[in-house]
Amino acid sequence: MLFHSTYGLRPAVREAADRLRAAGHEVWTPDLFEGRTFGTVEEGMAYKEELGKEELLKRAVLAAAPYSDRGLVYAGFSLGASVAQTLALGDDRARGLLLLHGTSDIAPNAEAEELPVQLHVAEPDPFETDDWLSAWYLQMSRTGADVEVYRYAGAGHLYTDPGLPDYDAEAAEATWRVALGFLETLG
């Protein structure tokens, strides 16, 4: 289950899904913004705020529900990574969590015993600061998750999206190489 960023379901998300499918994975890309895409982070965040966190998560849960009994791997880009993390930590059948460019708060009582988690993030990243990532890593580890973090020096926040100024081809290819290897281990 691959969730889009605050920009909406852009071509880069579909291309990422196609890349995953070409590697033999079944992939769903729910459109949490119901067809809306945005040209800036600010526009997308304003829409997300208008929509509300509860509605956004409700849409994500409804999108994942028909497939969750299979043991999903949750993945997402930035805001979508936050959504994916929330769903994975609430799903006992989750097989893995792939976070691209983002993380989220972790409930103090969250448990994710041996859940494989892989995070790919820019270094530095204005949305994922070093202090935040250190705290996130410790909290995620306390849940029992098996966490790997990959940092990409000099890359922009959404460096895997070729349609955005943040794009970094070298960092994007390195991310996909590692992420595909991670997904292969999940079966």
TrEMBL record:
Start and end residues of each Dienelactone hydrolase domain: 2-185
Record keywords, A-Z: Hydrolase
Keyword Ribonucleoprotein applies: no
GO molecular function: hydrolase activity
Top-level taxon of the source organism: Bacteria
InterPro entries: AB_hydrolase_fold, Dienelactn_hydro, Dienelactone_hydrolase-like
Protein's name according to its UniProt entry: Dienelactone hydrolase
